[in-house]
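tl;dr need the bound structure. longer version: we got a ligand (zinc ion) that a collaborator sent over and nobodys looked at where it sits. i said id run it. heres the input, straight from their email, havent touched it
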Amino acid sequence: MKAHAYAVVSEGRPLEPYVIERRDPRPFDVAIDVLYCGICHSDVHQARGEWNNSTYPMVPGHEILGRVTRVGERVTRHRVGDLVGVGCMVDSCRECSPCRDHHEQFCEKDCAWTYNGTEMDRTTPTYGGYSTHVVVNEAFVLRVPESLDPAGAAPLLCAGITTFSPLRQWGCKPGDRVAVVGLGGLGHMAVKLAAAMGAEVTMLSTSESKAKDAARLGAKAFALTRDEATFTKLAKSFDLIVDTVSAPHAYDDYLRLLRPYGVMAIVGVPPTATPVSAGSLIMGNRRLVGSLIGGVAETQEMLDFCGEKGIVADVEVIAASKINEAYERMGRSDVRYRFVIDASTLRS
Ligand code: NAP
Ligand code: ZN
Ligand code: ZN
């Protein structure tokens, strides 16, 4: 089956229309008509080769939302017509200890990433959601609550789970003081989810113009990180910091904002390394941790949580012809708060 897509055909090129072939559904496969696909900053990093792991042609996109159009004869979890999502992974070995523990992102044989990777046969390249159709094994297809707006739900498949997972891992609960660093796609989901879990959220941002939005999203306070006074005023304030920033910045400055035993969870992936001083960690037994998306079961839990609470992303729906412009704008932090591609515009 032919799918209309947008791809980076070779290194250094912008996104452009491209046609790919999708396999016929195998017994456990689900064929999905894509309705919307979110644009994650990880797409930008990889499309531009910023992580030194890029293979081309690349069809990015791992915030895929659509409807099931066909199912293989042994599929039991999904039916034709269901609203479904696909996130960052499309397969894993299913047998190793992380896979059995529902942490497929840490599969010992390496999971099959949705794009810029290969299927588990390690030869067939994977192509992501900037395309009209995807075909994915049912075990990696998520149920999306019908009550949610489909365009707003697409970003839950990466931005949602990536921020939900560290909040859950570190026990975010009512009354906790949580800071979110960077108000972009991940950051705005972190604010909504932490607020929904009952935390008192402070937004730490470089963009003064986003202060009003932060309050609307659920933040109780807003502080500018370009203002040095912020770091003295808020010293030793937070139980948990979720850092979503995509560019290099001084982790030490933020660690000092943690209370004793506080946790700073890094989810943003700046392309270059950042030094951390021992003192920032030792003074207060502070913990600096990372977090990578979330497993399939946890992603379903997050979608169900968002269904119950009515949480979706704030999106700017764009035509495929605007993808390159959206990438430029994300580079300037000009995103409110997730670009989502209307897949019907991929055909033209
Ligand atoms: P995004 O929408 O572009 O938002 C990033 C935000 O970071 C910006 O809006 C800006 O917020 C802030 N920022 C940008 N440059 C900055 C700088 N130089 N100094 C300080 N703040 C800056 O990106 P995203 O899609 O949320 O992704 C964020 C990062 O998470 C990316 O590196 C992405 O690859 C990574 N990611 C990781 C995972 C994971 O599993 N760990 C999953 C998905 C994405 P303000 O305007 O508020 O300052
Ligand atoms: Zn992502
Ligand atoms: Zn495995």
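gonna send this back to them w/ a short note. The chain is about 25% helix and 25% strand.
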